[in-house]
């Protein structure tokens, strides 16, 4: 049963990566045609759906009151991806926020 917790980092990383591809895809939106021809948006959608399917799988084995709060790990991955891949600045408030999310997720998981 504890091995199901291993899926959380993967599930949340895939979801964050989906958001990254949506962000990159949004940069290329010009008109409705570009919306449908934008491969980045398709990858983002596939990643989001994959993360949602993993979430459903996890919900089969764990209580809702644990699964949903632990999906907050997505914020951690999002900050890392935004720093590394988008070169965004990460300030102290964001770091403190991620630390608090991590501590809260640990308390909920215990």
What would your notes on this structure say?
This protein is mainly alpha-helical and 110 residues long. It is 77% helix and 0% strand. It has six helices and no strands. It comes from Clostridium tarantellae. InterPro entries: EamA_dom, EmrE-like, Mg_trans_NIPA.
Alpha-carbon Rg, integer: 16 Å
Number of strands: 0
Low-confidence segments, given as residue ranges, are none
How many structural domains in the coordinates? Answer: 1
Could you state the order of secondary-structure elements as H and E? HHHHHH
| Overall morphology | flat
What class would the helix/strand composition place it in?
mainly alpha
**Which range does the strand content fall in?**
under 5%
Query: What integer is the average pLDDT?
Result: 90
Instruction: Let me know the largest β-sheet.
Output: none
Give the termini separation. 13 Å
Please give the count of helices: 6
Helix share, percent: over 70%
Summary of the model, kept short:
The chain is mainly α. It has helices spanning 7-26, 32-36, 39-61, 64-70, 73-84, 92-109. It is flat, with a radius of gyration of 16 Å.
What topology emerges from the helices and strands here?
Elements (H helix, E strand, L loop, with lengths): L6 H20 L5 H5 L2 H23 L2 H7 L2 H12 L7 H18 L1
Which terms summarize this structure?
110 residues; mainly alpha; 6 helices; 0% strand; flat
């Amino acid at each position: 049963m504890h091995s199901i917790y291993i899926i959380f980092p993967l599930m949340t990383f895939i979801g964050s990566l989906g958001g990254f591809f949506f962000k990159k895809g949004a940069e290329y939106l010009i008109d409705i045609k570009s919306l449908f021809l934008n491969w980045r948006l398709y990858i983002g959608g596939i990643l989001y759906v994959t993360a949602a399917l993993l979430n459903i799988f996890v919900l089969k084995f764990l209580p809702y009151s644990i699964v949903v709060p632990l999906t907050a790990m997505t914020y951690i991955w999002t900050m890392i991806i935004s720093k590394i891949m988008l070169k965004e600045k990460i300030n102290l408030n964001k770091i403190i926020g991620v630390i608090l999310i991590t501590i809260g997720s640990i308390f909920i998981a215990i």
